[in-house]
Design brief:
Blueprint lengths: L1 E5 L5 H12 L3 E4 L2 E4 L4 E7 L4 E10 L2 E9 L6 H15 L4 E7 L3 H9 L3 E6 L2 H8 L16 E7 L2
Parallel strand pairs: 6-7
Antiparallel strand pairs: 1-4, 2-3, 4-5, 5-6, 7-9, 8-9
GO molecular function: acyltransferase activity, transferring groups other than amino-acyl groups
Pfam families: Acetyltransf_1
């Protein structure tokens, strides 16, 4: 069993620890800048023990909602989908026109996940991870699946 709650209802140290454990730091670096995920709006999936088992963060800027991070600790249980739906609803209520997000070329699971949920390729930024790596040198060169981490892929979805 899980419940979805806004990140601002969770002790900040729990969010900081979650991102540090899964990303090495609460900072998310993409070519457009560095974001402190533990300080962003978002939602967390929490199990019956109060442990965070998934988290999504986002920003809203005018008519755009940008998802900065989405993590699910247990695959294929609907956690990522439930979190994504929460942000999509929030974006609708904020009168956003689209939701966008960036992932990297090595993240084949995320690429499939977003396409199955109606997100489309909007752009590919070759070698963009080099810029992000200058901001956050901890970004590895090669993913666990053996793919070089090199390009950023922008996905977007128009909000009805």
């Amino acid at each position: 069993m899980m419940i979805i709650i806004p990140n601002n209802e969770i002790a900040k140290h729990m969010l900081t620890d979650f991102f540090a454990k899964h990303w090495g730091t609460p900072e998310m670096a993409i070519s457009s800048g560095i974001f402190r995920c533990d300080e962003l709006d978002g939602f967390a999936a929490v199990n019956e023990s109060g442990e965070i088992i998934g988290c999504i963060t986002y920003t809203i800027d005018g008519k755009d909602c940008e998802i900065i991070s989405l993590d699910s600790m247990i695959e294929n249980k609907g956690i990522g989908t439930a979190l994504l739906q929460q942000v999509e609803e929030k974006a609708k209520h904020a009168h956003c026109q689209r939701i966008k997000l960036i992932t990297t070329n090595d993240n084949v699971n995320a690429i499939a996940f977003y396409q199955k949920r109606g997100y489309q390729f909007a752009a590919v930024f070759p070698n963009a991870v080099e810029k992000a790596r200058r901001l956050k040198p901890e970004i590895p060169e090669v993913a666990e699946n053996g793919i070089l981490i090199r390009d950023e892929i922008l996905f977007s979805k128009v909000i009805d």
